[in-house]
Amino acid sequence: MKWLQQTLKDIRQYPSAIIGLVLILSMVVLALYTIITIPYSEAIRLWRGGEEVWGENPRTVPPAWTNWFRDKKMPETLVLRVGDEDVTKDMAVISEDMYDITLTYTFDYPYDGFPQSMNVFFTTQYTAKAPHVSMSWLTPDGRRIRLGDITARRSDTYRIDQDDRLTRRLRGVEPRVGLFADPEKENTPTTVKGTYTLVVEATTFEPNSEVDAKFVLYGQVHGLAGTDHRRRDLMVALLWGTPIALSFGLIAALGTTVTTMIIAAVGVWFGGAVDGLIQRITEINMVLPFLPILIMVGTFMSRSIWVLLVWVIALSIFGGAVKTYRATFLQVKEAPYIEAAQAYGASNWRIIVFYLVPRIIPQLLPGLVSAIPAYVFLEASLALLGIGDPVLPTWGKLINDARANGALYNAQYYWVLQPAVLLMVVGLAFAMVGFALDRIFNPRLREV
Amino acid sequence: MSEDALSVQPDSPVTSRKSSAGPRNVLRLARYTVLKLGSLFIAVVVGIYLTILIANMGGYVDQILRGQIREQVSISIGMDPEMRQRPVEERNRLIEETIAIEEERLGLNQPFLIRSFRFLHRALTLNLGRAQFMSSDSGSRLVSNIILERLPSTLLLMATANLLLFFVSVFFALYLSRNYGNVLDKMVVGLSPTSAVPAWFYGIFLILLFAAVLGWLPFGGMVAAPPPPQLGPRLLSMGRHLILPVVAWLLSGFFGSAYGFRTFFLIFSMEDYVELARAKGLSDRDVERRYVLRPTLPNIITTFALMLITLWQGAIILETIFNWPGLGRLLFQAIGLFDTAVIVGSNVIYAYLLALTVFLLDFIYALVDPRVRIGSGGAK
Question: Does residue B97 lie in a domain region?
């Protein structure tokens, strides 16, 4: 363990390694935080749940913090339900069977941009006659715009933006703009800031009939990370991508390094035919089309990243690193303490596991750390080719989704950049630490 | 990658024995070549057999063959004028019967082990079957035609990117090793971890910056649509489309390999015989060329081989990102369409391409490494 202390002392000479270590540590903290706050099942529900999970989110909008860099502030999503502070519900009896229910939704609109769209979701109770609903819109400058009249069945949705009659009434301007725009400035649509009110007047025709409505104004920005084409909050995937990327990279790097090292040690210790065979297999292995084989596994066997992980390790057992380790083992093998171990009758496996392998662990560390980014990016590469894990949200899958939906063409850069930056941070952090370790453990490199 | 390839310990100083026996050298070279070819052939066989094993896990290999038989039989019976007069039921019965006979003839009802070797033979002879959904631009449905059509564009991209990366980084590394410790050298050392990031990743940023935001260069593809009719403008358009993928490849590879080569050159220029050459008063150029570059050449070639291997595979994703109509993008499309024959066929081709690359470079290696020719050293 002395070498570990020495390493920590040496590493202080490399500022980039310190930065790398800090980044890795913060990523680990983020990963742990994610696993604790959003358990696995909850993450799957949030990412695969369906409309009821993300129905109130706008579609493909950038994160809310982009407003800081904008002159024109974009609206955030607003959801108003009965029971909220700014929603009132009044009931008037007209006759024995008929009631008038009036719902008013009042909200403040201080933004410069127009909302993405607006919906009113109705949930009504009745036995035979559905309630009749008429809606109107009050602007801050005192105009009253009549919206649609509908018969609200049990769970009906009134999509304000798709009301063609309303569009015609607004002289061809789409309602999401027309309802907020200043009528004086027709050429450059500008919002009128202030308090708006949506009035929903429902007439019920049965004694026990009930009308309830939820008003959703879909904004142009959402949350910390924005949303994707299915209205999902990207934050879930960004957060859960962290533990997945770290564990995939770490397990793959550890698995491949340890197995190659043992193979190299076995080859060197037994020598002769065993060594020759291992050498030949290594040479063959180097020529195998690694990525195409993984692609085959992904398409024909299983897309689970854990199955792919097993294949990655299996294909790397006889990887090129065997040659490097072999060179070191050949030197270690001649050391007197090995001879001593043999003299007191240690078994072959005892010598390999307890005497040979521990000696090269310090040299193994740089390779191991430097290999992690390669595997983190491998997962992303596979996801990009469309064989990402079908269940888990990963960074690679986000980039793939974004690309498949033309995020780059449609200037939805946040969608690509956020997972890309995270990938890059993880990749570079491990690469910087590995680089410093390489120079520390490789005396020949330290001189140059 | 490059650091792995360049073993830090320089090999034993090169013996400069004058070789006299020409025929013996040729014989040695031939023996070396045959050995290499043999081991590479085994590698190809293993690679393809692995492919078959994986593909067979869903019974997909059989599916390719069965589909092919069905198509052939249906066409041959459907085209037969004599058959056209018979009733449909009879024709269908005949088709089914012929298919059954064909399947038995081709051994589809034999155990998998035997069938897998049969398929291995077919794959090794590049008899890759017919695509299920895809076809080549010229309309052929033969997998080998589809793949052959894509090969030149992959080669264009790969050759440009890799040769550029290789020569630029070797010469830059020579410059750095000469000016060891200056600002540029320190910068390259500091930036070398950026090579941990693959090319496609830089590609996304490049597209974002130069295609989406600035609009200077195309998003992807190989030539403008529609392609200019004259050759000159068409080549120019190809060049424009080539810039971003090549730059992405350079960005991802440059600092890492420049650092690797530089370190390698530095270690070699600390050898005693280089010191001696310097003491003799030889010019820097001569020392560099004859005492540093010459003995490191075999290792540099090995690195180049490894670079090529990574490139063949890295191209799959780079081509996908840039919509480059090459082999990699073909594989991507085949995955999307689940065209088993094309996926398996691409794997076979990749196995061959990798082996071919390694063989060519091994051959060059044998030519430049005196130890292979003279046979003083052990196996590489």
Answer: yes
Instruction: Supply the DSSP string of B97-132, one letter for each residue.
Output: HHHHHHHHHTTTTS-HHHHHHHHHHHHHTT---B-S
Q: Which of A283, A287, A321 sits opposite B354 (nearest CB)?
A: A287
Task: Examine the domain organization and report whether B216 and B115 are in the same domain.
Answer: no
**Looking at beta carbons, which residues of chain B come within 8 Å of A409?**
212, 219
Contacts of A297 in chain B (CB under 8 A): 54
pLDDT at B246: 92
DSSP three-state, residue A150? strand
Contact B242, B322 (CB under 8 A): no
Question: Does residue B18 lie in a domain region?
Answer: no
Nearest-angstrom CA–CA distance, A252 and B367: 38
Return d(Cα A189, Cα B71) in angstroms, integer: 61
Is B15 inside a domain boundary? no
A7 within 8 A of A363, measured Cβ to Cβ: no
Domain range spanning residue B319?
A: 150-368
Cβ–Cβ contact B269 with A under 8 A: no
Q: Which residues contact A348 (CB under 8 A, 6 or more apart)?
A: A269, A270
**Are A373 and A431 in contact, with CB atoms under 8 Å apart?**
yes
pLDDT at B2: 38
Report, as ranges of residue numbers, the positions in chain B whose pLDDT lies below 50.
1-20, 376-380
For residues A403 and A401, give the distance between their C-alpha atoms in angstroms, rounded to a whole number: 5
Count of domains observed in chain B:
2
- Structurally, chain A folds into a number of domains equal to 2
Cβ–Cβ gap A381/B306 under 8 Å: no
Q: Do B47 and A435 touch (CB under 8 A)?
A: no
Contact criterion met (CB below 8 Å) for A228 and A415: yes
Q: What is the pLDDT of residue A26?
A: 94
A227 inside domain: no
Shortest Cα distance, chain A CAs vs residue B327, angstroms: 11
CA-nearest residue to B319 within chain A is A385
* DSSP 8-state code for residue A65: G
**In degrees, to the nearest 5, what angle opens at C-alpha B242 toward C-alphas B303 and B133?**
95
Tell me, yes or no, whether B221 and B330 share the same domain.
Answer: yes
Please classify residue B224 by burial: count the beta carbons closer than 10 Å to its beta carbon, then call 0-12 exposed, 13-18 middle and 19+ buried. middle
> Residue A149: inside a domain, yes or no?
yes
Do B331 and A295 lie within an 8 Å CB cutoff?
yes
Please give the DSSP secondary-structure letter assigned to residue A300: I
pLDDT beneath 50: ranges in chain A: none
SS3 A206: coil
